[in-house]
Write a structure and sequence with these properties.
Blueprint: H1 5-8, H2 11-25, H3 31-48, H4 52-59, H5 62-76, E1 81-87, E2 90-95, H6 96-121, H7 125-134, H8 139-168, H9 180-210, H10 227-257
Antiparallel strand pairs: 1-2
Helix pairs in contact: 2-6, 2-10, 3-6, 3-10, 5-6
Length: 258
């Protein structure tokens, strides 16, 4: 499939535009404007021709982090009661203020995750890291991300081999951690994996030192920015900035009426 215009956009422009978009929408408190930001991101996802299933699968990452707070906010925020939810001995009362707060959090998290998903889905990892380097991101942070991305799969393979070895010794998983044998075996697995990870890291670091690694990144010579890249990046940034200014204007107008 031919790369879309979002794929062809310079990685540096995408990083600046998307990160600025996330920063601006994260300060907004108006649900309709946040929903507009999410719709705009979905429009960009459609232009980029990102597979719907792949995009939705990446959005599932927001459930463990923001999902529980979205569910709890209506019941832990004081305010005007809207409805009650009875669970045996307990009665949970949801407030209107809590529902509003949960809606704001939901759309904030959805906008941030959608924006970052769009960035990672339309940019190769190597190009993304090169963009961070050209934007003068801390070298240590970029190196940590690169090493983590490279060796997490190595550790996954190591874990899979250890699990295969356990099954070969007739260990049956799936039991409760309250079981002494299961708890002891799982603890041993984690401990051995940690030791092997540390030893492999030491070997890799010594090998890098033997090849002249000093911790300093060589400057990357990127291509010059064209007008199309700058215009598209500015368009994304201006849209988010317009929503933020519109919210500020609405707040000032409401205060003037009081």
């Amino acid at each position: 499939m031919e790369a879309s215009i979002i794929h062809k956009l310079d990685a540096r422009v995408k990083v600046v535009a998307i990160c600025s978009f996330v920063a601006l929408t994260s300060t907004m408190n108006t649900v309709p404007l946040l929903a507009t930001a999410v719709l705009f991101l979905l429009f960009l996802v459609g232009i980029a021709r990102v597979a719907a299933w792949s995009f939705c699968k990446r959005l599932l990452w927001m459930i463990p982090f923001g999902g529980m707070l979205v569910v709890l906010f209506p019941f832990i925020t004081p305010g005007v009661p809207v409805f009650e939810f009875k669970t045996g001995l307990f009665t949970l009362t949801a407030s209107g203020e809590g529902i509003t707060r949960a809606s704001v959090l939901f759309f904030r998290v959805l906008a941030a995750v959608s924006a970052l998903t769009l960035l990672t889905a339309t940019t190769r990892f190597r190009g993304l890291m090169a963009a961070f380097k050209e934007l003068r991101a801390p070298c240590l942070l970029v190196s940590l991300i690169e090493f983590t991305f490279r060796y997490v799969f190595v550790l996954t393979d190591e874990l899979q081999r250890m699990r295969t070895a356990r099954r070969a010794r007739c260990f049956k998983g799936g039991g409760s951690l309250l079981n002494r044998h299961v708890f002891k075996t799982t603890g041993q697995l984690v401990g051995v994996l940690f030791i092997r990870s540390w030893e492999r890291g030491e070997r890799v670091y010594n090998a890098m030192l033997a090849r002249g690694y000093s911790g300093e990144e060589v400057p990357v010579a990127g291509r010059s920015l064209c007008k199309r890249d700058l215009c598209m990046g500015a368009g994304i940034l201006i849209f988010a900035l317009s929503l933020r200014l519109l919210e500020i204007g609405g707040q000032v107008w409401q205060m003037s009426l009081k």
